[in-house]
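Re: beginner question about structure tokens

> Can someone show what the tokenized structure looks like for a real chain? I only ever see the sequence side.

Sure, here's an example I had lying around. Input first:
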Amino acid sequence: MAEQAINSKPQGGAWSKTLRGLVYIGAAGAVLGSITPFISVSVLLTDLPSHFAAYYFIGLIFLIGFAAAARVRKAVWGALALGFALNTWTLAPYYLPAPKTKPAASFKILQANVLFLNQDSDALQKLIAAENPDVIALSEINAAHAAFLKKITTAYPYYLIEPSRDARGLAFLSRLHTLAIKRVSFADASVPAHVATLDINGHTVRILSLHPRTPLHGLALRDADFAAITKEFSARKDTPLVVTGDFNATPWCPALKKLKTGLSLTDARQGYGLNGTWPVWLPAPLRLPIDHVLVSEEISVQDYTLAPAIGSDHLPTVAVLSLRAD
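And the corresponding structure tokens:
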């Protein structure tokens, strides 16, 4: 019996033992991280790891290969399988085909964080000309961006352009008939947002554009904004709603998941891939999807893509939405 127990232990030299050790550490970290998108408590310890589901998925693929080479114990294979299953469940909705419905009226939204340090508006100008969106929702606009945007207000006669020297600048422009655009704030009074009420082929649609704080510089305030938005718009569920902007949160962070559930919102990127937007210099699989277009049940998504870089650390997004036919 003793001889059988000894022979059942993983064999190999020093390199194999080192590799096994790395696999054990990697598996533990990947599994713990993979659990965080399923935790509802929002603190830095759960929020920050929840953003990296794609990283865990890619890492687990490599760990499985290393585990095979290192001949790890069965318990480690179980942990790897658990992590792989959790991340597959988390990521699958963004790659499975999204259902299409017959549109009643379509409209295109260009959303972008243009970066307040970026003084060049030429790339943004070219993007707007190429995409010809119906609605433009921008965050972190500065005076240079504002000067350009004011030049296109003939084409976009409904607008609210509020530049800033910091990350709080916002702009909303629409070529569609707009009943009202106003600056609001929610739980964090220092963070503005724009709420617009549009008339799209006789249907009233509300669009909320926001840019809350980052989790590292105001997790509680960001989450309080999400909670306040949920409370504010819960009473208006009879009106189709689009919530867009740089949320400083991936789809899996606890507070954003509560907002989506509370307002019955769907992420427009579902069925079109993760389409990570930040930071722009990382390869596509490693960029985080923190810029969003969320839509209520009355709105379907006809297309969702990333746009070319415009000198910001974020990539813009373009969503083609439609009101569902009655």
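Each token stands for a local structural state, so reading them left to right follows the chain. Residues 1-8 have pLDDT under 50 and may be disordered.
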